[in-house]
Design goal:
Layout lengths: L1 H23 L5 H5 L3 E4 L10 E2 L3 E5 L6 E12 L6 E5 L2 E9 L2 E2 L6 E8 L4 E8 L3 E9 L6 E10 L4 E10 L5 E12 L2 E11 L6 E9 L8 E6 L2 E10 L4 E12 L6 H13 L3 H15 L3 E5 L2 H16 L25 H14 L1 H13 L1 H10 L25 H4 L3 H16 L2 H22 L1 E2 L5 E2 L17 H20 L6 H9 L39 H11 L10 H12 L3 H10 L5 E2 L4 E2 L11 H15 L2 E4 L2 E4 L10 E7 L4 E6 L1
Antiparallel strand pairs: 1-8, 2-3, 3-4, 4-5, 6-7, 6-12, 8-9, 9-10, 10-11, 11-18, 12-17, 13-14, 14-15, 15-18, 16-17, 19-26, 20-21, 22-23, 24-25, 26-27
Helix pairs in contact: 1-16, 5-17, 6-7, 6-10, 6-17, 7-10, 7-11, 10-11, 10-12, 11-12, 12-13, 15-16, 15-17
Length: 685
């Protein structure tokens, strides 16, 4: 049966890979196949765009010419409904243009040879199309890395054999649920320098924030007269007209900034200043800066030789983690990043357990910001613990800007999924392990670990045999509610308590001896054959995602090969087909560490290939869902590469490499820019 199951998985993956090639690779030329930084698409059917993001705003593109579906704002929240929890906000959208050529408004129906190229290295999306017998049009979209509240669209219109008359409108569109207080156009002057500005100011749906968006055109030396038009209470535009002579090019840009009272005392004036800065001679500078900053990020890269499809998939995953992060922002990453309002933009364990480890290896600045996010909300975590009768700090299952519990009240996870507090503590010690930053450990890391440890002492209860239990929880497998002694919860608590003891010693403090006592006596349950039970009353039900197997990785509590295999053989067939992708990534890591490259590669592919959505390969949360981009899944697949195939391990004395295990079709695997010393690790057969 085991052999047949493996064959079935391999056959399924082979089919998916072929299907993926048909969707994603059929239009690639030989030169494009060698350019592993770019993904080119020519079919807009079932289009799922890849967000262009700089860690503050996420611009979600469309297949429709000159359209951006939405702009998502990081850590800017209002209520989702009158009696609902918080929800991350859409920005007032500045990124839509309308092009008219010889009286015809350009749309998907009257253009030819449409294509888009996502350049991962430069973090740009280039769209090209032809207006038959009239023009070739190219434009690039940027979420500017150096100006985190600003986006830019750079446009080139080339007339073909005849002169053409074009009309271009730049729009600002406000979500209909917002309360618009000002939608206007004005031209400022300083020393005769005209600065035309289109502007919208609005209150968020329930009044928590004021948002301001400003936008304008950028021309070369020849200014264009602009006209203002109000389209609706929520949308207005400025437009210009121009003749483009045959065989000539006309270039212009459209730039906009969106600011809110979450980050600015005066968002209106700040959005205006940012647009003026770009407009007045800095367009080329900010594009150059954007590309240079992304080039710096890509000094930390994953390079796969021999498997172009896996190379692009891995780079796309890493692109998303970089795009949704920002150093020194003191912000974390939501499950969908800045690609949508999915899961209300809240912060879960997805951040610490799934996205943090790859970023810790490849970009410590991003990793530190994720922990800064938790430290800034430590006071609220202490309040939550006290409100439920516990000591120390109890982090919310879903966190927003306030740090209070943001899970919808109907979801039992918000009331009972407590392992998040241990997950935060584990991430803290791992950051110290890699960086050796003792000052940070003293000021931020150990306070988080210490107050988490105090919580776990009050949250656990001693049994008559002297062991300890953590009862009435929801574990990583969220199908099982209100259970006792969940394997992953107890395992993560054990590790977090052990790390708290180690951190106390490093910081010159005396650890509470109770931390070690509880850690060593937490109860785990087993079937008669030695398989670890997921919880005290588990009877073999289908599970949502990996739980028990997390004891082997990343917790490294189960280390004997026989025990690791026994748990994997039992739980792999019990993972729900509707569950999230990350579970198979864990199995991939473990099989790679056990030296089974073929099985590890099968599960690596199984973790994400069924979740790819056309045309670029955006990842949905599960094989059956339609909610890309699932950044948590990206974190899982990257862990399979880094901690599985590359053989990297975090230890108390830093990062070590043990027994890398390369898939047979990979000629080599190279990891660059690793850790604070920016080391390179290369694996070959």
């Amino acid at each position: 049966m085991k052999k047949n199951r493996k064959f079935g998985i391999a056959l399924c993956i082979a089919f998916l890979a072929l299907n993926s090639m048909a969707v994603f690779g059929s239009t690639k030329t030989k030169n494009e196949e060698t350019d592993l930084w770019k993904i080119k698409v020519t079919d807009p059917t079932d289009y799922v765009g890849i967000a262009l993001s700089n860690g503050r705003i996420g611009m979600v593109p469309s297949s429709k010419p000159f359209q951006v579906k939405s702009i998502i704002l990081n850590n800017v929240f209002d209520r989702a409904g009158a009696n609902d929890v918080s929800k991350i906000l859409e920005g007032i959208n500045f990124a839509n243009l309308v092009l008219v050529v010889d009286g015809d408004t350009i749309n998907q129906a009257n253009i030819e040879n449409w294509e888009q190229v996502l350049d991962l290295k430069a973090a740009t999306l280039t769209t090209r199309f032809e207006v038959p017998d009239k023009a070739e049009v190219t434009y690039q979209i940027y979420a500017l890395r150096g100006m985190p509240n600003v986006g830019l669209i750079d446009v080139d219109v080339h007339a073909l054999k005849k002169d053409i008359q074009i009309s271009v409108a730049g729009k600002i569109s406000c979500p209909a649920s917002y309360h618009v207080t000002d939608a206007s156009f004005k031209t400022l002057h300083d020393a005769e320098a005209p600065m035309p500005l289109l502007k919208t100011i609005a209150k968020s749906p329930f009044g928590k924030h004021t948002l301001a968006t400003t936008a304008t055109f950028i021309f070369g030396n020849e200014a264009q007269p602009l006209q203002h038009k109000v389209l609706s209470p929520f949308e207005h535009e400025i437009n210009f007209q121009r003749k483009v002579k045959a065989k000539e090019n006309f270039q212009f840009a459209w730039t906009g900034a969106v600011c809110s009272t979450e980050n600015f005392g005066d968002p209106q004036n700040e959005s205006e200043r940012m647009v003026i800065y770009v407009m007045r001679g800095n367009k080329d500078l900010v594009i150059k800066q954007h590309k240079e900053l992304w080039a710096d990020l890509w000094q930390s890269d994953i390079q796969i030789e021999g498997d172009p499809e896996s190379q692009r998939d891995v780079r796309l995953a890493l692109y998303h983690l970089y795009a949704f992060s920002r150093e020194n922002s003191r912000l974390s990453i939501a499950p969908m990043g800045l690609s949508s309002q999915g899961y209300n933009g809240h912060i879960f364990w997805d951040s610490e357990l799934w996205m943090f480890p790859p970023l810790l290896i490849l970009n410590q600045g991003f990793a530190k910001s994720m922990l800064d996010y938790r430290f800034d909300r430590l006071g609220k975590a202490e309040e939550k613990a006290a409100n439920y009768g516990y000591k120390g700090a109890m982090f919310p299952w879903e966190s927003d800007d306030t740090g209070e519990e943001a899970t919808p009240t109907w979801a039992l996870t918000g009331t009972f999924e407590h392992h998040i507090t241990a997950d935060v503590g584990i991430a803290c010690w791992n950051y110290y392990r890699l960086t050796g930053n003792k000052e940070w450990l003293k000021t931020e890391g150990f306070p988080l670990l210490k107050k988490g440890a105090k919580f776990w002492l009050s949250r656990s209860s001693q049994n008559s045999d002297g062991s300890y239990s953590i009862n009435n929880v929801v574990g990583a497998n969220e199908y099982a509610m209100n259970i006792d002694d969940n394997a992953f919860t107890n395992g993560s608590v054990k590790v977090a308590l052990e790390y708290a003891t180690k951190a106390a010693v490093v910081c010159g403090e005396t650890p509470d001896p109770k931390w070690d006592e509880v850690a060593q006596k937490l109860r785990f349950n087993y079937f008669d054959d030695g398989v670890t039970k997921e919880h005290s009353n588990y009877k073999g039900e289908i599970i949502k995602q990996a739980d028990v197997n997390l004891l082997a990785y990343p917790l490294e509590l189960v280390t004997e090969k026989e025990a690791v295999l026994k748990d994997m053989d039992y739980y792999e067939p019990r993972i729900s087909k509707k569950g999230p992708a990350m579970g198979y990534s864990i199995f991939s890591v473990l099989y790679a560490r056990l030296g089974d490259a073929d099985k590890a590669f099968d599960l690596f592919k199984r973790a994400y290939v069924p979740n790819k959505r056309p045309p670029f390969g955006a990842l949905a949360e599960s094989a059956t869902s339609q909610n890309p981009y699932f950044t948590t899944g990206a974190g899982g697949m990257l862990q399979a590469v880094l901690f599985g195939f590359a053989g990297l391990h975090l230890a108390d004395d830093g990062l070590v490499q043990k027994d890398p295990c390369l898939p047979s079709n990979w000629k080599s695997l190279t990891i660059t820019g690793v850790g604070p010393e920016h080391k390179t690790y290369k694996v070959t057969h």
